[in-house]
Amino acid sequence: MTGKVWFSFIYLGGLTVLALLVPFFNFDPTQIDESLIGRPQAPSFAHWFGTDELGRDILLRSIYGSRISLMVGFVSVGISICIGVIVGVLSGFIGGRVDFLVMRVLDTLMALPTLFLILIIQVMLEPSIFNVMVVIGVTSWMGVARLVRAEVLSMKERVFVTACRARGIVERKILFKHIVPHTLNPIIVAAMLGMGGAILIESVLSFLGLGVQPPHASWGNMLENSLGYLRDAPWMALIPGVLITLTVLSLNFLGDGLWLLLDPKARERDVIHT
Amino acid sequence: MVRQKICVVFWCICLGILLSCTQSTDKQTLVMRLGAEPSMLNPILSTDAPSSSVNGYIFNGLLKVNEKMELVPDLAEKYTVSEDGRRLVFYLKKNVKWHDGVPFTASDVVFTFDKILDSNTNTVRRSDYIINGEPIGFEAVGDYEIRITLPSPFAPLLNRLTMGIIPKHIFNSEDINISEFNRKPIGTGPFVFQRWETSQFVLLTQNLDFFDKKPTIETVLLKIIPDNNTALVSFEKEEIYSSGIPGKEFPRISESSLFQTFQYYDLAYTYLGFNLKNPLFSMPDIRQAIAMAINKKSIVDGILRGYGTPAHLPTSPEMWTYPKRSFSYDFDPEGAKSLLKEAGFVMNSRTGIFEKNGDPFQFKIITNKGNKDREKAAEIIQGNLKDIGIDVSLQLMEWSSFIAIVNSDQDPKDYDAVILGWSLGLDPDGYSIWHSSQYPKGFNFIGYQNETVDRFLELGRVTMDRDKRQGIYQTIYDEIAKDVPYVFLYYPESLVGINHRVKGLSEAGPTGLFNPIENIYIEE
Questions:
Q1: Contacts with B394 from chain A: Cβ below 8 Å
Q2: Does A38 touch chain B (CB under 8 A)?
Q3: Of the CATH numbers 3.40.50.620, 3.40.228.10, 3.10.105.10, 3.40.50.300, which one belongs to the domain with range B268-493?
């Protein structure tokens, strides 16, 4: 475990704790300060991250924004993992024509430009955070499915599977008791990377006004808000921007770290490299 | 060695391209901005602002509006109005030619208005030329005389005759709705259409055969720049000569010697409109409570930076019918709360939201995305209403889907409340916005219905006397202000910056600055 992995772990842990605890305090992130409308305040002791163009506290909005981002990350990745694992396992295990067909469908789906697909769906549906999560989840399971299928394909040729068959264990049991648990490691790593991607997509959608609707805060719409104020209130853009970057980067580092930790082959390679 | 030579040649070519690029902007070229792609360059079909601003250079009407907001003859030499106001005769100028060289005659004028009245033409202008179900008659007498017959006197008529005249010889044999000439127009105006590159620019050049004073400007380049921030940056880099300026940048731009700045009231207002067919808003008291809960002053001071005025009436302070004293509901959150209580709402102390029969008072405001002032105003309104115990959610929509909801034919329409703005014509006639016949199809999309207002709107159209009309419209304004079908939010002030090299501007106003275009020139 390297320093950056530890940093990512602490950063994400802290963010999650803050995001979970903040609703228990009596703060309102949409509270407008009428005396400060149109005059964003620079970071100060009263407002650590400054205020935005309607006099709202940016620190508070950032934390509420992290709730949205983390929730989108978890839920949409949850959905995509569920679909991806089911499709991947079945396709890999059944094999033959079914596998061929499923893989061609996957190829087709992967060729679709996901972001534009999401944009079109969001324009047609009413923009809501629930839709965002479902749409991201439903459009991003293809990678997971391929990963799982590849793993299942190699697993089912292993000697221990043949041994299971020799002992007369039913196929279903072999699949769920012996093969699926072995695919967990790559899934966890893919989930970490997928969360980073989902958080980015949510930010893009909110930036374009198709995600979280104002006055509710999300990092994406905070960034969008800051556009007209880049010259006189750069912190309005800087803070959500840095948060998005740090979060996505941390998830990627953590994914890498977990991969090293969980995959013995990767560890060996790592040792040889260093 | 060879490689070096190739390099040198390459850089020379690049430099040459660069130089030839920059050359096009000197001499008398006026570079302006269009806020969006024009839809059609045909004055009788287009409804959007970018199209009208291009059409303004290319087409002429019988009359035009001068910089003092007066109607003066344009294609007409002069005109006469009969005693009863129902017969008008227009005598046309004789030296006018279309841009393709064909002479302009009375048949073009009759053709234009016939096309507008033809139900096969996709135009929203038709109702402008129909009075109580009867169309206005246009008849050509010889080549240079037009007789107009009205079923009854019609005050907005002269304003309606500023409509751009289109060439009969071009559209006669074409389906006007899909004609290719809607993309390469032929007009009579001071500028001739040259090129339209989609999402890039529209290029116009001086009309050497123009019938009136020829413009000094030789070329007009209209760049299509949808984003306001990008437009402001181009303006400051002197790539475009004119731009709207956001309030918070206005003092900074004003101080620069590179720019001239102007501020004036447009004929416009911004409002929060209720869907009156929604049972939630059927009671005037509820709407009044909402009106009293909204702090218009904080919107004007905070969002518009003081460049505007809180609004109370469906008109503009620049309009001649604007009354000296007007009816208004002032900011009074406590009063709003007691109105809601009288209307049977009970405060739920746990949620802080008013309830009636267990249903919390909540609704959704929709507005179009992209207009920052409106978006921010919506957030302030949301906060104001939360303070008195009304739960409002917001939705920012893309323009075309937003308009599809507002303009749908269904009754009731699928929205609770909208934030929108109206740009008004020079005539105070508000028939299309407020008359009950204009629902569900028409601009009265909120479903406003008030017999007195209907009657006075009809009267206002057929009354010619200015003083009498002023009285009529004041009655209408008062009646509407008391009913609160809209909460009038603000009259925005237009803030315009123009490059210091552009000279010959007229006084700022809704029709001013670049009007007349013939006076404008670029100083080297």
A1: 213-215
A2: yes
A3: 3.10.105.10
Kindly list the strands in the beta sheet with B29-34, ordered across the sheet, starting from the edge strand earlier in the chain: B29-34, B219-224, B201-206, B191-197
**Domain-embedded: residue A137:** yes
CA nearest to A215 within chain B: B379
* pLDDT tens across the length of chain A (274 residues): 588 899 999 999 999 999 999 988 888 888 888 888 888 888 998 888 999 888 899 999 999 999 999 999 999 999 999 999 999 999 998 888 999 999 999 999 988 888 888 888 888 887 788 888 998 999 889 999 999 999 999 888 888 888 988 888 888 888 888 888 888 888 888 899 899 999 999 999 988 888 888 888 999 999 988 888 888 899 999 999 999 999 999 999 998 888 888 776 666 655 544 4
Whether A43 contacts chain B with CB within 8 A: no
| Residue A162 within any structural domain of the chain | yes
Contact A54 B376 (CB under 8 A): yes
Nearest residue to B395 via CA among B418, B422, B421, B372: B418
Tell me how close the Cα of B415 comes to any Cα of chain A, in angstroms.
12
* ipTM for the assembly: 0.75
Cβ neighbours of A61 (radius 10 Å)? 25
Burial (CB count within 10 angstroms: exposed 0-12, middle 13-18, buried 19+), residue A94: middle
The answer to whether residues A209 and B369 touch, using CB atoms and an 8 Å cutoff, is: yes
Q: What is the DSSP letter of B103?
A: B
* Residue B225: both structure tokens together: 């720049």
Domain B63-170: CATH superfamily, name plus number: Dipeptide-binding Protein; Domain 1 (3.90.76.10)
Minimum-distance CB partner of A37 among B302, B386, B394: B302
Element holding B238 (H helix, E strand): none
DSSP label of B97: B
* Interchain contact A209–B (C-beta under 8 A): yes
Torsional class of B85: left (φ above 0), alpha (ψ -120 to 50), beta (otherwise): left
